[in-house]
């Protein structure tokens, strides 16, 4: 019986390490937003084509991907773009004060993003997690000020 307990603990410990410590394919693909980029907006048919500036991950070759992550403690152009999006497309609608566009993901940015996620979830995305963290699901659901002056979502 003592041997079985050690074996079970050993298996559980190995499973914990493999899931939490060593990178998985999902964790390896997760990129921290480090910049901002322009992406095509999902404008209504018949409306002028528009571009949306939003947080993205930009690699050394200049390629971008808006499916990236931001969390408290981040400090870069991606955070600034997130803060602009919150201020321009949500602050007045939510009745919240505009937040500083200083590029620092602090308590005010997290609190404001939590309010935005709550609004989006109530209106459209029942599966959106309200956690104050910016990731691909939030990126796809949020609206950002587009080149046409309207708050739009990213296409595709």
How much helix is in the residues?
Answer: 40-55%
Radius of gyration over all CA atoms, rounded:
19 Å
- State the major sheet: 3 strands, antiparallel
Do you know the CATH topology of the largest domain?
Muramoyl-pentapeptide Carboxypeptidase, domain 1
Oligomer: single chain
- The low-pLDDT segments are 1-28
- Fourth-tier CATH superfamily name of the largest domain: PGBD-like superfamily/PGBD
- Percent of residues in β-strands: 5-15%
Taking the alpha carbons of the first and last residues, their distance comes to: 56 Å
Number of helices: 5
Q: What can you see in these coordinates?
A:
- By secondary structure, this protein is an alpha+beta fold.
- It folds into two domains: 1-30; 31-152, Muramoyl-pentapeptide Carboxypeptidase, domain 1.
- The protein is 42% helix and 13% strand.
- The chain is built from five helices and five strands.
- A three-stranded antiparallel β-sheet has the order 1-2-3. Strands 4-5 form a two-stranded antiparallel sheet.
- A hairpin with a 5-residue loop joins strand 2 (51-58) and strand 3.
């Amino acid at each position: 019986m003592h041997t079985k307990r050690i074996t079970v603990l050993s298996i559980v410990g190995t499973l914990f390490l493999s899931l939490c410590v060593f990178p998985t394919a999902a964790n390896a693909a997760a990129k921290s937003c480090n910049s901002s980029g322009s992406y095509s907006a999902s404008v209504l048919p018949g409306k002028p084509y528009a571009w949306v500036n939003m947080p993205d991950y930009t690699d050394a070759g200049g390629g971008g991907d808006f499916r990236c992550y931001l969390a408290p403690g981040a400090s870069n152009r991606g955070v600034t773009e997130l803060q602009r999006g919150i201020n321009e497309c949500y602050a007045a609608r939510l009745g919240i004060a505009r937040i500083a566009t200083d590029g620092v993901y602090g308590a005010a940015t997290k609190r404001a993003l939590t309010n935005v996620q709550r609004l989006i979830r109530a209106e459209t995305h029942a599966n959106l997690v309200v956690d104050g963290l910016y990731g691909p699901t939030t990126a796809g659901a949020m609206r950002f000020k587009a080149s046409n002056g309207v708050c739009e979502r990213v296409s595709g």
